[in-house]
Amino acid sequence: MLIRRPAAEVFEAFADPAVTTRFWFSRSSGRLAAGSTVTWWWDHYGVSGEVRVVALEPARRIAIEWPTPVEWLFEPKGADATFVTITASGFTGTDDEQVAQALDSTEGFNLVIAACKAWLEHGIDLGLIADKQPSS
After folding, report:
1. Helix (H, G, I), strand (E, B), or coil: what is residue 84?
2. How distant is the alpha carbon of residue 114 from its chain centre?
3. Do residues 116 and 13 lie in contact, with contact meaning Cβ atoms separated by under 8 Å?
4. What's the CA gap between 20 and 41, in Å, rounded?
């Protein structure tokens, strides 16, 4: 997904929970740092997840274990745009279970990157994550 902001700013949107909480999770135990472990909470769903930061290259790459590997690559496209690639891997189980995990991951990260784009480019919180499964 192309986001029309510099790579350093897009990288920070995922590394700094003060920004990430504007479009993805509700809160975090801390900023992403190489070798750290943080917890992310989605308060509207009553769930949390522990994230271990495997690699952090400012404005270039984030790699985590959550619980499977996820990697963000930030490719500058000129001075004011960044192409973001998110790759999730390490799915386990039967072939059908792995396909289901890959589809779920793809859907989730597509929502996250679209929400990030809306926030960074237009300052709009689309509510995509909370609205995916609203409470009844």
Report:
1. strand
2. 10
3. yes
4. 11
* 106-125 pLDDT tens trace: 999 999 999 999 999 999 99
Residues in CB range of 20: below 8 A, 6 or more apart: 13, 14, 28
Q: Which amino acid is at 39?
A: T
DSSP three-state, residue 85: strand
CB 14 within 8 A of CB 116: yes
In the chain the domains, ranked by start, together with CATH numbers, are 2-132 (3.30.530.20)
pLDDT digits (tens, 9 = 90+) for 53-100: 999 999 999 999 999 999 999 999 999 999 999 999 999 999 999 999
Residues 37, 49: Cα–Cα separation, whole Å? 10
Residues 6+ positions from 1 with CB-CB distance below 8 Å: 83, 84, 113, 114, 117
Instruction: Give the bridge partners for 70, in sequence order.
Output: 64, 88
